[in-house]
Design a protein that fits this description.
By secondary structure, the chain is mainly alpha-helical. The chain has one domain. The chain is built from 3 helices and no strands. It has helices spanning 12-21, 39-92, 99-111. α2 (39-92) crosses α3. It is elongated. The N and C termini lie far apart (71 Å).
């Protein structure tokens, strides 16, 4: 570390007292010119972080929704075209009163099995 001051030597008694008072020994931090910031710098940094976070979130939202809508619309239209074609084929077949069997055949036809 650049500004870490070396801790002074302690005796065993002081070391035992420190360990009994706290479970973790933490040396005192010395004053360092790198750790000092003015209030204006902190506010400016917070504002910058907020602006960057909002920009990243907005970019992600715009990019993720734009192609999805077009892709979903194309997928729905392709599904609708397959469904009408399969229903047309099913109407020429003789299922009688077996509506579940007909619906199952239409689903398999749309999936591409039939």
């Amino acid at each position: 570390m650049i500004c870490r001051q070396s801790p002074k030597r302690s005796t065993r008694r002081e070391h035992r007292e420190l360990l009994t008072l706290t479970s973790v020994y933490v040396p005192k931090q010395g004053h360092c010119f790198l750790n000092k910031r003015s209030a204006k710098e902190e506010v400016a940094m917070k504002n910058l972080i907020c602006i960057v976070a909002v920009a990243v979130a907005a970019t992600f939202a715009v990019v993720s929704t734009a192609p999805t809508d077009a892709f979903a619309a194309a997928k729905r239209s392709a599904y609708a075209a397959k469904e009408t074609a399969c229903k047309n084929k099913a109407s020429h077949m003789k299922f009688g009163v077996h509506f579940v069997k007909r619906h199952r055949w239409i689903k398999e036809c749309i999936a591409g099995a039939a």
